[in-house]
Design brief:
The protein is α+β, with helices and mostly antiparallel strands. The chain has 18 helices and 21 strands.
Length: about 525
Amino acid sequence: MWLQQFRNMAVMITILLMMGGCASLPTDFERTETHAYTDTDNTRIGQASQAEKLAHPGQSGFHLLGNGLDAFVARAALARAADRSIDTQYYMIHNDVVGSLFIDQLLKAAARGVRVRLLVDDIDQGGRDFGTAVLDSYPNIEVRIFNPFGRNTGRTVQYVTGFGKQTRRGHNKSFTVDSQATILGGRNIGDEYFEADPEFAFLDIDVLSVGPVAQSVAASFDLYWNSALSYPISVLVDKLPTPQEIDQRRKEFDDFIAQQADSEYVQHLKNSDLANNIKQSQVDYYWGNGNVIADDPQKLTHATDDTQYHLSKQLKPYLMDIEKELIILSPYFVPGKPGVAFFKTLREKGVRVKILTNSLSSTDVAVVHAGYSKYRKDLLRMGVELYELNKNMNKKERKEIKEGGVGRSKASLHAKSFVFDRERVFIGSFNLDAQSRIQNTEIGVVFESADIANNIAESFDQNINQAAFRLELKTYENGSEKIFWHGLVDGKQKTFDVDPYTGFWKRFGIGFMSILPIESLL
């Protein structure tokens, strides 16, 4: 019987490989090369901070967006202020309230004559080609899909059989207007990233920047937009939508948008201080030197051990320069042996290292926790201060924290930010795991601002014990070691001797996965 089962499995694997091998992409089309506008100083956004730019030559302005509603408002208000262009790239744009309101702002900008270039990774596009083609059909809007799956074979089959190609994604997130202002950070476009869904809100941080950083992001966008990995949606669909289908879809879309008139997002866009400040050119920026660090899109076409196109090489000098303290916020944290060695080097220099990541109960990708959990003892042993998000905080403990800080989240940490010596800050899409380092493409910015760095660091210190479990490693007389989790439960201190809020079988499954050779994919 076992022999027959083996044969059946072999046949199934063969069929999957054959089906995956049948996937193909179109080749007989022209990819028009376009570029970001550079002569945009006279746009409204270009003029808005002109005096401050002149007072800070060569520097960029930075404004944190730690609150989800403000992060939505910043994008919408910038879109409303756009005069010439919107260039935006995302890993995922959900088909929900936030996603629809986001697309609505792009449509309205295009209707005013603004050129809109929208680049989306194909990971979440299954079944959405028609609607995306409808969007692409509007004047002044062009949509391209990054690293698309073949449309003649199932996506799951291609993902399973396409290791080294379909498993490598464009994880970049940027929103740039008139090459003058840009938003970078960890947020995808969807309700849960902007505190809309009360059951699944992500703790996240974005940064709004004006000045040279915006031009650098625009240049990075051009690399991706004109890459051979970016396909116009029009060449991926079987047939283009008819005028009647476009009209019908637009009517349905406009009806949905009209129903959101009283939503928290629309009201916040009308009434928030940030919306008014953007409209009136009164945003408070912190000024300093900034450096955009980004993977080259060619990273996805080269072997994973070819690091010449990797963002991590650009980030390394900042990490090596740390003298006193490193604070890390990373939802998916798998340091690997090289990372553990690096943290050991920092600790030997006397650098204090504080890390916040997701707990097993708060992570939305449990398999990543398997890669992370096996390094906890090594990190704790060397004196790294390790914290895991406390998922089940009550409402009082879940109160809003100052913008940019560790605080409000009902489910999962999603921010990707590092603070170097309370002088520099990194904010972007980059996680400290192999998926970001090796597999996917990412973007972020390192900027000098003691004010913002201290804002995040002090908020971390003030709120971490309410927001997270502190991990402690105890060593017994017989040499055995055990991890304990200390945190608040219903307002009272409690200690766990296993991963909090988890059952035996979940922990068993994670333990089993931790011994599998899959770390390079996590």
